[in-house]
Amino acid sequence: MQQLSPTAKVILGFLRLGARTGYEIKSGVEVSTRFFWGASFGQIYPELRRLEGAGLVTSRDESHGARHRRGYELTEAGERALQEWLTSSAARQFDYRDEGLLKLFFGDLLEPDQLLESMRMTQAQFESALAFFRTELEPKARAGEDAGERFPSLALEFGTALLEFIVDWWAAAEDRLSRQQRPTARGGHDSRRSPRVETGMRRP
Question: How far apart are CA 83 and CA 86, in angstroms?
Answer without folding.
Answer: 5
